[in-house]
């Protein structure tokens, strides 16, 4: 069975390839997936299953033209992995360039992501 860090790194590798089905293969059928942020961010909010997580990724692609997405530091603690990173995107439809650091926190059980929290400087999106 894969450890938490290898599962998380595989998810980021899949994201980098644009391979959402590979990411979903790493997500538990029932999941606690939440992007923290105001309702004005289309992909903010709670997801509870793979179908909803798939919609999350579709909403990210619709809302943001990703130009750089970089996980920089992985901090492993048993079933938990915290990832620090940065991204640059052009927000749609405003066309505003946004650069921000982010934090993602994963819980992996039995080789599957059962919990994910994402947050970034939401003020950067609206400045």
Automatic annotation (TrEMBL):
Domain SnoaL-like, residue spans:
8-116
Origin superkingdom: Bacteria
**Which InterPro entries did the record assign?**
NTF2-like_dom_sf (IPR032710), SnoaL-like (IPR037401)
Q: Which Pfam families match?
A: SnoaL_2
The signal peptide annotation in the UniProt record is none
Q: What is this protein called?
A: SnoaL-like domain-containing protein
Q: Which organism is it from?
A: Cupriavidus numazuensis
């Amino acid at each position: 069975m894969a450890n938490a860090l290898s599962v998380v790194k595989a998810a980021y590798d899949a994201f980098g390839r644009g391979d959402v089905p590979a990411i979903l293969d790493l997500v538990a059928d029932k999941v606690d997936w939440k992007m923290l942020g105001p309702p004005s961010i289309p992909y903010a909010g709670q997801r509870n299953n793979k179908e909803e997580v798939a919609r999350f990724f579709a909403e990210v692609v619709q809302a943001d033209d990703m130009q750089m997405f970089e996980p920089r530091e992985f901090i492993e603690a048993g079933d938990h992995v915290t990832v620090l990173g940065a991204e640059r995107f052009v927000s749609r439809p405003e066309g505003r360039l946004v650069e921000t650091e982010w934090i993602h926190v994963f819980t992996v059980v039995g080789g599957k992501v059962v919990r994910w929290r994402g947050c970034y400087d939401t003020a950067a999106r609206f400045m």
